[in-house]
Prior knowledge:
The chain has 434 residues and is of the alpha+beta class. The chain is built from 16 helices and 13 strands. Helix 3 (49-57) crosses helix 6 (123-140). The protein is elongated, with a radius of gyration of 35 Å. This is CBS domain containing-hemolysin-like protein. Residues 210-269, 272-332 form the CBS domain. One of its GO terms (cellular component) is membrane.
Amino acid sequence: xxxxxxxxxxxxxxxxxAVSAFxxxxxxxVFSVPTHRIDSLVATDVPGARALSALRDDSHRFLVxxxxxxxxxxxxxASVATAVFVRFGFSGGEAATGSTLVTSLFVIVFGEIAxxxxxxxxxxxHALRVSRIVVAIQRVLRPVLYVFEALSGxxxxxxGGESAIESYLTREEIATLVRSGEAAGALxxxxxxxxxxxxxxxxxxxxxxxxxxxxxxALPDTATPADALSRAASEGVTRMPVYGENRxxxxxxxxxxxxxxADETGADLASALRExxxxxxxxxxxxxxxxxxxxxxxxVIVVDEHGAVVGxxxxxxxxxxxxGELVGRWETDAVDVxxxxxxxVHGWTxxxxxNETLGLSLPAAAGAETVAGLVTxxxxxxxxxxxxxxxxxxxxxxxxxxxxxxxxxxxxxxxEKGFAxxxxxxxDGSGDLA
Length: 434
């Protein structure tokens, strides 16, 4: 008789430990599957995916189900162990101590560590396997779960907690996932850079990506459609602002396609103008992108706090912020390699483009994104022709300048081996800058 009781008791403890293991592993597995992956599984109609999605949609109820079932199983196992010890003649204190040791061993090793280790290694497969069973158990235990959910809701109201389980990712967490993906080889560096570019749109302003006023190609309102086409072809642009009395008096923008139609029909330039869109230089790029998409504008006029025009921004500028610099025809001539250790560039050439082209590591900081800005920052004043600065192993010499801006810079490397990048020493526009 005693032997039968012992076998029944051990069997009950093993069964209750299995229940504990089931819910421990289920809880971890269900919450470990990413939401986007669950959506993909549901879309492909994978068995168990809809049940898994239902559990995640009502994650608070699932958590209550797992915790209630798990704890009831653990408490029941301890009670059975205590009863067995008492049946074999142990005193109350001895029985409590013995049951604590036995159930702790079973619950910790076989009810927690082992099943959760398995769930971590096989999260998706295990979650799909157990989800339909858990959903069925929820239906059976619905009255009990309702009581516990109501009690937890009361406690949450007193403690200021929320019943819903937050499942969103912060920008910092997404950035961490991107870095982890790059380290694991799931993302290449270019893909990672693009994702970071998208994340940075909210904190980057128009001023950081706009074409500055000094580099804006613009037309007076007295120009003809033929003038617009000629200027666009010579400057390598497709859209230009059109101004009236001065460059702060922007009356419209012209697209070369509209200029072509006007030229073919003999109409004047005014008929080809589009209403200009003005934005402050402090506008975040994500807001600008949404605004341009809604209005179908391809160019905006950037103004400062006083209403003065400080530059323009195009969709290309926004795309470059995400996917990197889109080097167009007018930019291919920006780096003219004249020797193995020397090159000539425009002042407006970006430091990042120069670094990429020549394999350099010149610093690019706020206010010094261009070569001209870098030279100005190093000198602490407006550069003049002949000024020279050394930045690491690189010497920058101003070979062209006006009273207010640098137009041309010679870049020389101190290492006789020359630039680190694989360059052929010539560009299509080699003679333009030297």
